[in-house]
Amino acid sequence: EFCQIAVMKSRGGSDAADIVYDGVEMDVNKMKIKFPTQLFINGEFIDSDSGKFLTIVNPSDESVICKVQSASVSDVDKAVKAAKVAFEEGEWSKISARERGQLLFKLADLMEQHKEELATIESIDSGAVYTLALKTHIGMSIETWRYFAGWCDKIQGSTIPVSHARPNRNLTLTRREPIGVCALITPWNYPLMMLSWKMAACLAAGNTVVMKPAAVCPLTALKFAELCARAGIPRGVVNILPGSGALCGQALADHPLVRKLGFTGSTEIGQTIMKSCAVSNMKKVSLELGGKSPLIIFEDCDLDKAVRNGMAAVFFNKGENCIAAGRLFVEERIHDDFVRRVVAETKKMAIGDPLHRGTSHGPQNHKAHMDKLIEEGATLVYGGGRVDRKGFYFTPTVFTDVQDHMYIAKEESFGPIMIISKFSSKNIDDVIRRANGTEYGLASGVFTRDVSRALAAAERVDAGTVFINTYNKTDVAAPFGGFKQSGFGKDLGQEALNEYLKTKCITIEY
Ligand code: TAP
Hints:
Low-confidence stretches: 10-16
Keywords: NADP, One-carbon metabolism, Oxidoreductase
GO biological process, one term: 10-formyltetrahydrofolate catabolic process
Bound molecules: 7-thionicotinamide-adenine-dinucleotide phosphate
EC number: 1.5.1.6
Organism: Papilio xuthus (Asian swallowtail butterfly)
Largest sheet: 7 strands, mixed
Number of strands: 23
Mean pLDDT: 95
Structural class: alpha/beta
Shape: globular
Enzyme class: oxidoreductase
Strand content: 15-25%
């Protein structure tokens, strides 16, 4: 139901005691949820200049949830200018780093209080299975905010012994400073988590931000905007602009007052963005892009675990997972057994309504994405098409006998499709060469009980993440990001702060 909603906010932002927005209230998942449907600029929810909307569809039943304001180029300009004022003159620029941390902790607490609501919104918007949304999409988002809130007052420079200009003496020190107005552009697979991975580090470093969520899944970002206002994040510090990539995203990459752009998405759009950042004003850029991650399973592994983790490596979050194992290399002696077991387990996966607690596999995120998941080549041993029910459901799929040159072995599916080929233990160099035979380098995995073999593989695989005897084990404290055409610049961990800081070097003579 579309309505006007007023919610209390604690302090900061505009002078009014309440935040008012046009939004939606729904009874779903045995709870009341409400969220804004307007742009969030300078601490207020407002309509777009363009009068354009995004239509938001629930992928589990293809129903329209609501319409959301779609930002225009002039809305982007308005938001960037508000973020610039907030950075240079606002309360944000005056409070101490420790106070900044307290505000981010408060925001995390509010997210925690609303985690069921956020997970429900994520589920209806993106098709994420609710139980997973609660634990990962929302749970890891909250952890990310707390982790970076803790960093705020620990960002420090160094003192450096430089050569003296005799007879005088010199001292050099460095300051780690925020960059200014940052833009963030994120994809649809983990809407709130991708926002959090980038924005928490960005704000902890003291920047202000204009953020564009994916056009198909903007709802948790808008709920997050409401929580920012309620937490008392000063006006203009966080601006959220749902809109199209071609218009709103491009305007952010082109904007001369934006000094840094953090992007997660496809390699193709990453290239466009990097070019635009260079041409407009040489803005700093970090890119988390696609992957086709290899998972190498040796015959001496714990096979039960390899089957379980191998499936999770591919089917987690419906395969809409940037580090999904896009290529499984299974040693020939265990290959047939592995395939048999994987297919038996895959058949047992509970496909259905993502809000049902027993569901393990929900619908694909949106129709255009699902329509791309068509099989070709190789041997299809299970699945390979839509599930016969309403909603964008795709059967978890297994291909064997995949050759390295085939399209499905080279291009990311971003869907629940397992691609298996064999290798021989007689030629480990060969499987490493095949694993590295891609322009991507996001993640990788190895299953073996032989420590030397595991470490040798970890050393030689050219990817930003290597999992040994596990998969998908990301953590807010550990750096995450790819090599080669999977991009550069890390999310998470201390290293992520570097993406949102600049180092100033000060030399004193005395
Ligand atoms: P993209 O099509 O690249 O879209 C990502 C974001 O960029 C969206 O918000 C999109 O807007 C926007 N965009 C599109 N064109 C733009 C332009 N010209 N200028 C500025 N922004 C623009 O990717 P996707 O299909 O949403 O996401 C899937 C891809 O993301 C996969 O390849 C996956 O591997 C990758 N991914 C990587 C990671 C990491 S951490 N490496 C994590 C998740 C996903 P619209 O909403 O209008 O499309």
